[in-house]
Design brief:
alpha/beta, two-stranded antiparallel sheet, single chain, 9 helices
């Protein structure tokens, strides 16, 4: 038995965003957001495409989006490539999901909290070793929370999770292990058999449920992303070298950003005849407008 890689866009949406995924997504979000407590009892999986209600704002494309029974909105993104300005993109999408809830004439009381859950296959916070980081609005010195903050951001950094199967204790441990290691497993681990939703996720992820075209497409995407991870790492190294040559911190940061963007554009050009604009944007971190510009070159 082999399982598809849940870190790949197609697989992630199939496991967590399909019509049969509701109980799976509830369990996953309870684990990732609420420490395994059964806080979420119901939700609605909704269109992850966030068209802008304001003409000059960028459209957004997420992997999965859900509205909880209490009205909160959860936007979920799985990001494999550490592309330029990704941290800013997360903030932008979170703020946009919050601010564009209202139509003209509606009062601010209609706003519902937005939780942005981001799972990364790379390390975002080099100075911290925790797997899960939870950001909220707080007063800078005395650290009390802002009343009705409206937005939260949660990051799951998969490379920092190193627990083995026999050390998995919590629901959170089991879901993070699933996300990181499912493709390397041949059977559903006995330590996860008591969680029916994880068993369902494994069932959806079973390669035998894919037709030959879907399986080939998934394998091609996974192989390509692995290649691009190497290219982006090289871009970061070149950016660092450029920054060092300029001999100042500003030059170093600009060099890194420039190198990563150039590599992202290089990847996007190679994908133009393979993928649609939305998928290329998800893969590279470039905006859909950037992709459209490349097509018109």
């Amino acid at each position: 038995m082999r399982f598809i890689n849940p870190k790949i866009y197609f697989a992630f949406k199939k496991i967590f965003g399909s019509n049969e995924s509701k109980p799976i997504l509830i369990s996953f979000l309870n684990a990732m957001i609420y420490g395994g407590n059964s806080t979420i009892t119901d939700l609605e999986i909704i269109d992850p495409y966030l068209p802008s209600k304001v003409s000059y704002l960028k459209d957004s494309y997420l992997d999965v989006q859900a509205k909880l029974a209490g009205g909160q909105i959860v936007i979920i993104e799985m990001q494999v490539l550490n592309v330029a300005s990704f941290a800013k993109r997360v903030v932008y999408n979170t703020a946009k999901a919050y601010s564009t809830q209202l139509f003209r004439g509606q009062g601010y009381s209609k706003l519902r909290p937005v939780i942005a859950l981001t799972i990364t296959d790379f390390e975002m916070f080099d100075n911290d070793r925790e797997v899960i980081s939870h950001f909220v609005f707080k007063e800078k010195k005395r650290l009390f929370e802002y009343p009705d903050p409206g937005m939260e951001m949660i990051f799951i950094e998969l490379p920092k999770f190193n627990k083995q199967l026999d050390r998995l204790e919590t629901l959170t441990d089991k879901w993070v292990y699933f996300m990181k290691n499912a493709p390397s497993l041949e059977v559903v681990p006995s330590t996860m058999e008591n969680v029916s939703e994880i068993q369902q996720a494994f069932a959806i992820a079973n390669e035998t449920n894919l037709n030959p075209e879907e399986l080939k497409d998934l394998e091609d995407r996974e192989r390509y992303i692995m290649d691009q991870q190497g290219i982006l790492r090289k871009g970061i190294e070149e950016g660092l070298a450029q920054g060092r040559e300029e001999g100042r911190e500003e030059g170093r940061e600009e060099g890194i950003a420039l190198g990563m963007r150039e590599k992202a554009l290089e990847i996007a050009r190679q994908l133009l005849n393979v993928l649609d604009n939305q998928t290329i944007s998800q893969t590279t971190g470039l905006s859909v407008e950037d992709i459209q510009s490349l097509r018109s070159e």
